[in-house]
Write a structure and sequence with these properties.
Length: 137
């Protein structure tokens, strides 16, 4: 997944992405717990960490959302890249987007569009000569 963290794809330096992920993971966990509490209608009866595991790790949920908001690829392609379905990518985006907005973090769309994993791999293999993707916003 490190190649998906490329600044050309995310629109931000790796350090900034790491800081963003670090800031959002605790809030994402809290949000998930609140949602599960609402669904159950009561406090959890078993220890945290038991039960079904999320299909995407919190950091991957945030990264997938950033890439989705950059409009680099369809949800189907992002699903392929993360090894999940497009529905999981959509849910991740729905959960993470409000947290990004609450932090005042705006993700600019890019000019690049990728159709297949091969297109993306070819783009990343072309080297870091200069900024290849222009911002649209």
């Amino acid at each position: 997944m490190r190649s998906l963290q490329d600044p050309e794809l995310t629109g931000m330096p790796r350090q900034q992405l790491s800081e963003l992920i670090g800031a959002l993971i605790p809030e994402l966990a809290l949000q998930r717990e609140q949602t599960l509490h609402t669904i159950r209608g009561h406090a959890r009866l078993v220890a945290p960490g038991t039960g079904a595991k999320a299909k995407l790790a919190p950091a991957d949920r945030i990264l997938a959302t950033v890439l989705h908001l950059r409009k680099l690829a369809t949800m189907n392609l992002l699903g392929q890249l993360f090894g999940v379905s497009a529905v999981i990518i959509s849910r991740a985006s729905q959960e993470v987007r409000p947290l990004l907005e609450a932090h005042g973090h705006h993700i600019d769309a890019s000019t690049a569009r990728f159709r297949t994993p091969t297109d993306l791999a070819t783009f990343l293999a072309s080297g870091p000569a200069q900024t290849k993707i222009k911002r649209t916003g």
